[in-house]
């Protein structure tokens, strides 16, 4: 059997029973071959004097109406013993209310109800049909008395004879976390011929570690338990929770093979979620198709598992297709599904899609929860839209929703990236006032913001504060610090930080090295940058394409084009696929040098490697060919750019227009000039002068004056901007 083989892999050695614990023998060993009868019980007889007191107490309880209980029973308090309590109970067994009142009164005087009386009261509650009261009494008994289970068994035959009391006792043991006692109770009851219901057995399964769960799942049916679909679902969930999704899948297949218990929507949905949690989308989709083929309708949880994985992998468009399929199949998305989608689009930076989904959500009558608002705030902050993020945050507070550390950290990070450290620290302090503890991500964002503003000492103080709070610097924190130091031009301190990082037992990654390489490249220290690449390779750290692009850009900016070409050749040789940025760096520099032959060679090599040109590629080629006065090639690349849906930069417009004017292709030049104005890009002065003269010569005075005003306005604004920058304001 698959379950038996699973047990061999998962189950630990059985626990050695504790002889001091009642019913402490192991589950299987304690099952006897013959059923023994329940003990014969009868309470001891009261004396004549005691009988009189019992009669008077019973009468007082039955005749009591609105008078307080302590006043009714006060005449008997000094003589009332635990025996009297047990003798009174048979006279009240048809009416639970006075039984409970009597117990409460007795406890107020003696602090503890006798074990036997507690067990009898629970039996009376079961016999009266008050299962909630019975369960409460059983929980109290288990928590207060060491041998309470023995008393429930001992008094069972006389007081109740309803086996459901043992279901309730089992539940009670689980509720107060007496798991071992519940398992021992199961085996003890089997010896009396009592098998508790599958529902309470399921409750036990759900509370066990996976290895014990599998053991019980095989052992209990020996005693007569017949597992149902919920039981199998608990096993499937348990295996999935520890990443053993393949084992869980085999359990589902066993259900189908046996046929006695068929998998339901929960079985499939749990397994689909398990595969999604380990990133196995294809297997999850195969199961999804399988369950629909069998006539089982996926629910919101099923769809959300798949949507979550797609969003996690950045495939939000595919996730939205799943969402559409969900709606088309009559499954209404809930807040969780919408929040997952919103979070996915926020991480992708697609805010229009986010706003659309929020609108759909509200239209469906769904109320955004704290997680939805947090996802929105994260997306807006990540996109630098801090005014909108703050507005959503205030709306969240107005609706009575409590922001958590993630909400605040999203805002803090957004303000830090904007360089608004005042608001970032305001929110940090607000977090502390709210009783929320800033996490490593919060401090990393603040540290990064301070470093980028050159406040390295303040950043270090903040990190010391973080360590004092018991938080440990992680890779992201160190990388943020290194990045901030590099941005502020303090490369030596950044190198020292990386040494400290390694001393703390945290290994630098490709990002750490790439950040330092970028700083060295911008400083023109190419030898140091190149040596860092060798160090990375020696340590077995795989450089990313960004690493090579940083180095390539450094070579090109330093005029070391041959080194750049060698780097490109080495990447191709080592099967490290360059991207468009890699090629663009080389082409840009060759274009600056008017070496269009070399530029064309690089462009062809790019195509040979299957790398698609991007918008920057086309703009570089257009400017380069215009500069080299190759207008035929420049116009060809312009048409390719338009065909692919890309846009010209202002420098490319300027280059094309000037080139066309030189070639006397004034109609095309005029068309590009008007297009440039329409999209809000500013042409340079030479081009304005060209078209002012051209229109004036054509007698078009109105347009000439319009262009003069426009030129004065645009170049006046630019002059003011340049003057401001010049004075450092």
TrEMBL record:
Pfam families: PPR, PPR_1, PPR_2
Keyword Repeat annotated: yes
The keyword Repeat appears for this protein: yes
Positions of PPR repeats: 228-262, 264-298, 299-333, 334-368, 369-403, 404-438, 439-473, 474-508, 509-543, 544-578, 579-613, 614-648, 649-683
GO MF annotation list: mRNA binding
InterPro entries: PPR_rpt, TPR-like_helical_dom_sf
Keywords of the record: Repeat
Alphabetized PANTHER family for the sequence: EXPRESSED PROTEIN, RESPIRATORY COMPLEX I CHAPERONE (CIA84), PUTATIVE (AFU_ORTHOLOGUE AFUA_2G06020)-RELATED
Annotated family: Belongs to the PPR family. P subfamily.
The protein's name in its UniProt record: Pentatricopeptide repeat-containing protein At1g05670, mitochondrial
Primary gene name: LOC103707767
């Amino acid at each position: 059997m698959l379950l038996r083989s699973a047990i061999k892999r998962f189950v630990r050695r059985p626990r050695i029973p504790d002889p001091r614990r009642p019913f402490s023998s192991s589950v299987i060993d304690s099952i006897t071959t013959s059923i023994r009868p329940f003990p014969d019980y009868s309470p001891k007889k009261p004396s004549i004097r005691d009988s009189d007191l019992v009669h008077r107490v019973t009468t007082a309880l039955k005749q009591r109406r609105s008078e307080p209980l302590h006043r009714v029973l006060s005449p008997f308090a000094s003589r009332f013993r635990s025996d009297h309590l047990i003798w009174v109970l048979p006279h009240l067994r048809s009416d639970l209310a006075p039984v409970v009142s009597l117990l409460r009164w007795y406890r107020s005087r003696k602090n503890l109800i006798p074990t036997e009386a507690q067990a009898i009261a629970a039996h009376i509650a079961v016999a009266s049909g008050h299962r909630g009261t019975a369960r409460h009494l059983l929980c109290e008994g288990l928590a207060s008395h060491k041998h309470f289970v023995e008393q429930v068994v001992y008094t069972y035959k006389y007081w109740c004879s309803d086996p459901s009391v043992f279901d309730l006792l089992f539940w009670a043991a689980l509720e107060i976390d007496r798991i071992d006692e519940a398992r021992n109770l199961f085996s003890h009851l089997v010896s009396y011929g009592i098998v508790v219901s599958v529902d309470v057995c399921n409750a036990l399964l759900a509370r066990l570690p996976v290895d014990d769960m599998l053991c019980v799942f095989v052992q209990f049916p020996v005693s007569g338990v017949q597992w149902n679909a919920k039981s199998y679902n608990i096993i499937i969930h348990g295996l999935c929770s520890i990443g053993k999704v393949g084992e869980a899948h085999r359990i589902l297949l066993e259900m189908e093979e046996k046929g006695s218990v068929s998998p339901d929507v929960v079985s499939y949905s749990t397994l689909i979620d398990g595969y999604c949690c380990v990133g196995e989308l294809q297997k999850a989709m195969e199961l999804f198709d399988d369950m629909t083929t069998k006539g089982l309708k996926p629910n919101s949880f099923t769809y959300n598992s798949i949507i979550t994985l797609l969003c996690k992998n950045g495939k939000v468009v595919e996730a939205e297709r799943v969402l559409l399929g969900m709606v088309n199949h009559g499954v209404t998305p809930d807040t969780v599904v919408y929040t997952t989608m919103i979070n996915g689009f926020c991480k992708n930076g697609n805010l229009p899609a986010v706003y659309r989904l929020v609108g759909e959500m509200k239209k469906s009558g769904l109320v955004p929860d704290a997680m939805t608002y947090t996802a929105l705030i994260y997306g807006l902050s990540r996109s630098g839209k801090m005014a909108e993020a703050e507005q959503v945050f205030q709306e969240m507070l107005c609706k009575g929703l409590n922001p958590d550390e993630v909400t605040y950290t999203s805002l803090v990070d957004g303000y830090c990236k904007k360089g608004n450290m005042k608001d970032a620290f305001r929110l940090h302090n607000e977090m502390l006032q709210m009783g929320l503890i800033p996490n490593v991500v919060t401090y990393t964002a603040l540290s990064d913001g301070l470093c980028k503003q050159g406040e390295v000492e303040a950043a270090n103080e903040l990190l010391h504060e973080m360590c004092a709070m018991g938080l440990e610097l992680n890779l992201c924190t160190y990388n943020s610090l290194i990045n901030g130091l590099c941005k502020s031009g303090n490369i030596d301190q950044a190198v020292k930080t990386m040494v400290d990082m390694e001393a703390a037992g945290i290994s630098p990654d490709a990002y750490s090295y790439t950040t330092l390489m970028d700083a060295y490249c911008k400083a023109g220290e190419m030898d140091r940058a190149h040596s860092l690449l060798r160090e990375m390779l020696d340590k077995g750290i795989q450089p990313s394409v960004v690493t090579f692009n940083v180095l390539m850009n450094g070579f090109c900016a330093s005029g070391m084009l041959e080194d750049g070409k060698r780097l490109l050749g080495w990447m191709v040789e080592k099967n490290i696929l360059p991207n468009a940025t890699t090629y663009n760096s080389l082409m840009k520099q060759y274009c600056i040098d008017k070496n269009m032959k070399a530029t064309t060679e690089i462009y062809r090599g790019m195509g040979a490697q299957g790398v698609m040109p991007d918008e920057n590629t086309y703009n570089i080629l257009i400017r380069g060919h215009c500069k080299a006065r190759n207008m035929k090639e420049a116009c060809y690349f312009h048409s390719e750019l338009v065909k692919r849906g890309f846009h010209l930069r202002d420098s490319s417009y300027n280059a094309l227009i000037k080139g066309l004017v030189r070639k006397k292709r004034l109609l095309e030049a005029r068309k590009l000039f008007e297009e440039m104005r329409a999209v809000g890009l500013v042409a340079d002065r030479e081009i304005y002068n060209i078209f002012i003269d051209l229109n004036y010569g054509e007698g078009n005075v109105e347009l000439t004056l319009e262009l003069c005003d426009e030129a004065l306005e645009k170049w006046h604004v630019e002059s003011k901007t340049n003057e401001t920058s010049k004075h450092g304001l």
